[in-house]
Amino acid sequence: MKGSQFMIAAASSGSGKTVISCALMAAFLQKGMKTAACKCGPDYIDPMFHREVLGIESENLDLFFCEPEVLKPLFLEHTRGAEVTVIEGVMGYYDGMALDSDQASSFHVAGTLGIPVVLVVPCRGMALSVLPMILGMLQFREESHIQGILLNRISGMLYPKMKAMIEAGLKEKGYQIPVVGYVPEDEVFGLESRHLGLVTPKEVLGIRERLMRAGEILSGTVDLEQLLEIGRNEGNADTEAAGQAREVQTGKKARIGIARDEAFCFYYKDNLELLKNAGCELIPFSPLHDSRLPEGLQGMIIGGGYPELYTETLSANGEMCTAVREAVEEGMPCLAECGGFMYLHEEMEGKDGVFRSVAGVIEGRAVKKDRLVRFGYIDLQAQKDGIYFKKGERLRGHEFHYWDSTDNGTDCLAVKPDKKRFWECIHMEGSLFAGYPHIHFYSNPVFAERFIENCRKFQSE
Fold it and tell me: Residues 338, 412, 425, 455: which is the catalytic one?
């Protein structure tokens, strides 16, 4: 029997989606339920938060990266065996790739996967005005998928009156939608954005205890059984019959090193699973703490993260810097994204403003800027033939970074979805593919196939 699946969404960012989603996950864990998590959109932070703080594996659901026929089976596989799946929405519920578009929005994901939505409604300082706001969200699209309301920042004393008023007002307009509970004003729900990049065990432990307390509170203020029932309501039979996402060909095993520590921690679960399903063995290593690469590697991926916070330690680990540089120079296939790309430079500026030497693969410096340099989706277009990416081919990705490079590369063109803005980027030099974009393999699985095949060839050389 398929488990309960629902999305937590809101009219805007800053409405409490993250802490409420995590608190509900904690509440279900406390009930002994096998719980899965997902996050709409390309963000790495919230899925990492679900995994590191609550111990729940999380997956991005993104309809820019993946076509519906690809996203459906990936979602089905991720949630297989889960008794409940909590999906955290992104931004405002209808906010998509462009100012006037709901493409790739939480609403788009809910409709594609047949997922019912619980709308979080902040109520502080509001009374009757909350009703037209909810009605506007329900009426904006013919089928909103909204099947429950969760009130945020409201007292237990006021809640029964607000619940009755909202449900009666919705019924009068033809909507039989329940208010499933409320989130009280409590410091445990005051999760600040700085907590979302947790890296140290001590911080993780403290926030986990806080979220478990939040889960205990919601167990008393939210009708969890009603929420689970809502999660079984929306018909997602199409997801059940979705088939399988295109997988790359399996073959001879390839040992691929994955940089994974406090400095490098941004990886899409789907990318790593694709590699595993193709027969790759993923070997974690730490540019911060290890002095050498693991034995017998045939490829290497250095993802994004927070290297700018650890430049002193990264630079002091000269043995690892040398090992990475020599591996790339010897032709080991290497993918480096954002923070990983920064690490490959000759020098990187730390958050403290000090430049320090790092791996030295790419001539130039990674430099801190006083503004957000790039943000949002991109369509990556190859401008020349590389061993993984051929001229004219496309690969979808995302950028978000406050650091820039004195040499971003010129081998690809990054084009915004509106096609009005574009810029050169990416180093495709021999076995190296490096730049600021975070790429998603399922937007062009052939790219991943070529990378894996070159890893296997490196083994035999």
Answer: 338
